[in-house]
């Protein structure tokens, strides 16, 4: 395990760029991982290498064939990382763009009079796409309300509103506002119990960095991630689609292969950095287990990441040493409950008597990077029902430390003393 293993924590941190310093700010604690995780050093090196190669992948020359092999390997690595036995992976502009594309394709191919279902907890990447294309095609959009108290939506919530004419469904795997993870497999099962052929598309962007991806278990048709949120770099997204969804009519060039979903020349570097990320999970799994199978090591890494991040968020909420936790600070309110087992490395709070942007600025001045979520088009669906104009999002990953959590708690404790 990662907890109580200083040597392993040091080895983990050594693999990431700017783990404790910012080239613009200097020393800082990075609790803004939901906005974009730290980047593996190997990813930066790989990106630089492939950025200098002029050849198109697939051309009949050594570089063209070599880069195509890199792309093929990355897709195989993704299949292992996400436990996909079939279907295909492809890259796009971003995770959001890919979700829009998949949802658009699903809606325009749905039977006339069909319905589209999604939940109020979802990020606008899916929610906006589903509502837009349902409206264009003339489909009813069914909204599944989430529970404000827990920041979640459940399989029972979906089941209560499911009907056989639902042809498209969207699911959020983890919320970037509340930090809660949804039971995708259970929700998918509830959907298919009523509408077996429903096309189910999942937003896995917030969940991916916390490990434990298992497409075999989900029984869905589409799943998207944003690699910059899972230790890679900006500039691309990755989608997986099932075999049956691959064959559905979709945007493509005339006379192109019927199941091809990629457009234009591929960026070898983006795919190559995916392999760097998978290699990192494989390495971490070898450090926290005796497994020899790569997939088993990746699963072990996911379990270790989840356990350690739970330890860190519990420390943040309950306190450490002589520092009180967030739950014991009278000026702090925690969104979605203090004891919520669905939490994935994220705690959102509000400070009584202080606007969230001001708190973020105060923390940033002390070298603690957090982020304001406002009741806007990104987060209003979660914050407005709570009567909140904004909140402070504290998001961490497994390379963060208890010492960094203690630094945050000390700063928030001092802020409370100033406010009292």
UniProtKB/TrEMBL annotation:
Residue ranges of domain Aminotransferase class V in the record: 29-245, 324-408
Superkingdom assignment: Bacteria
Cell division found in the keyword field: no
A Pfam family of this chain: Aminotran_5
UniProt xrefs under InterPro entries: Aminotrans_V_dom (IPR000192), PyrdxlP-dep_Trfase (IPR015424), PyrdxlP-dep_Trfase_major (IPR015421), PyrdxlP-dep_Trfase_small (IPR015422)
The entry's keywords: Aminotransferase, Plasmid, Pyridoxal phosphate, Transferase
PANTHER family reported for this sequence: CYSTEINE DESULFURASE
Gene Ontology molecular function, alphabetical: transaminase activity
Species of origin: Aliisedimentitalea scapharcae
Protein name: Aminotransferase class V-fold PLP-dependent enzyme
